[in-house]
Write a structure and sequence with these properties.
Shape: globular
CATH superfamily: PCu(A)C copper chaperone
Number of helices: 1
Largest sheet: 6 strands, antiparallel
Bound molecules: copper (II) ion
Structural class: alpha+beta
Helix content: 10-25%
CATH topology: Immunoglobulin-like
Low-confidence stretches: 11-28
CATH class: Mainly Beta
Strand content: over 45%
Number of domains: 1
Order of helices and strands: HEEEEEEEEEE
Mean pLDDT: 85
Number of strands: 10
């Protein structure tokens, strides 16, 4: 009888620990913060920004991306050409080192949402799915708001 009383608090604490973990984030293997996407019209392009942290003990590779509002979704980098023009290029298989951040921000890396299937207006939210080689699917909910 004694053993049951000792075990019960242990089981309860294990249970609460598990449920807390599930609520903390959509992804167990990484975390994201400060997400937002630009308003845009159907058929046009928008960009999504957030910071992803690789919490794994190993480097990870972003293999592909998708979204519920775009026909095509890519990781892009903004850069300056030799002529001083702003350009963008696709970054394939971007590596995120262990415990490092993938920072997506205006003027830098961003998720390019191309050929939008809906208008995106302030107050909407879109879903961006990152497919990592190690972490697997990371689903990010991104609210639409104008740039500051
Ligand atoms: Cu772009």
């Amino acid at each position: 009888m004694k053993n049951i009383f000792i075990l019960l608090p242990l089981i309860l604490s294990l249970l609460s620990c598990t449920s807390q973990k599930k609520e903390a984030s959509a992804s167990v293997n990484g975390s994201t913060s400060e997400a937002w996407a630009r308003p845009a019209a159907k058929g046009a392009m928008s960009a999504a920004y957030f910071t992803y942290t690789n919490t794994l003990d190993t480097a990870d590779t972003l293999s592909s991306l998708s979204s519920n509002v775009s026909m095509m979704t890519q990781l892009h980098e903004s850069y300056m050409t030799d002529d001083g023009l702003a350009g963008m290029r696709e970054m394939k298989n971007q590596v995120v080192e262990s415990n490092e951040q993938l920072v997506l921000e205006p003027g830098g890396l961003h998720v390019m949402l191309m050929r939008l299937t809906n208008d995106l207006a302030e107050g909407d939210s879109v879903t961006v799915t990152l497919n990592f080689a190690q972490a697997g699917e990371v689903v990010v909910t991104v609210p639409v708001k104008p740039a500051n």
